[in-house]
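Case study 2.
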Amino acid sequence: MQAVVLRTFGAARNLRIEEYPNPRPEPGWAVVRLRASALNWHDVLVRQGVYRSPLPHVLGADGAGTRTDTGEDVLIVPSLWWGDDESAPGPDWQILGDHRPGTYAELVRVPTECLVPRPAGLSWAEAAALPLVGLTSYRALFTRGRLRAGESLLVVGAGGGVATTAVALATGIGARAVVTSSSAEKIERARDRGAAGGVLHTETGWAESAKRLSPGGRGFDLVLDPVGRWSESLRALRPGGRLVVLGASHAEQASLDVRSFYFGQFDLLGTTLGSLRDFGGLTSLLRSHRIAPPVIDASFPLDRAAAAHEHLESARGFGKVVLTQD
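Prediction:
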């Protein structure tokens, strides 16, 4: 098969299309012929060697295609072997494309329990773009963040896949969402997708500016921080509010004022990806509410995966970047 193969950790140009051994089916696993694969920031970290993937390696967590054994159109849930404890993943948990060949290929092998029917109404690109950000956003907002209809949400960052998906899920259940961004254009695009407003997090005092957009200016019930701006995000919460953190692209360390934290009665909640049960909750939500489909920012053919990574890293886009196959 043709696959995008990484032989040396580092820059996007190290991703090169070449022939790679076909995956072989085995009991409990199925081979999927991919029609689309979606990029995630996690893939950039894999490419850079953060997760010490074996080399040579095929990246990619997200994908949608057709099972070669049954002919069923499916999407792939990239959370492998979460375990029996829903509160946190077990020791065998991993993300597809970390240590096993991923979805930047014509074919991929995955556990059959991680295959679900392609949702009606979604294009191949939209189906491929849903699993990782959909599962991550669902767990962050609902399993961990306990978001309910009528509550207020601040999403730090407006343009990434998690951010656009979180706004869609939150507004779909009747919550009020506000965003931050470094770009006024991205804030406007988020408003077009249902956000109530936004602020530029490049400006001094942005947390206080965002707080003024919350109901009564009291602060948000929930702040979703996928970049690592903890100290500022906390300032945007109402007393007793919840901060859910799930990324560190802005900063990998944070300083918190302990006294104001406990006097504020805040919850600080960490999360990443989610379980198959969480994904079941996501699909149930998609069936019971009118949720906008994933935002597709740009599509590239499989042999231009390096260019797709460069586009993703430029931070110019709004929504998901997808690799497509005819």
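The radius of gyration is 19 Å.
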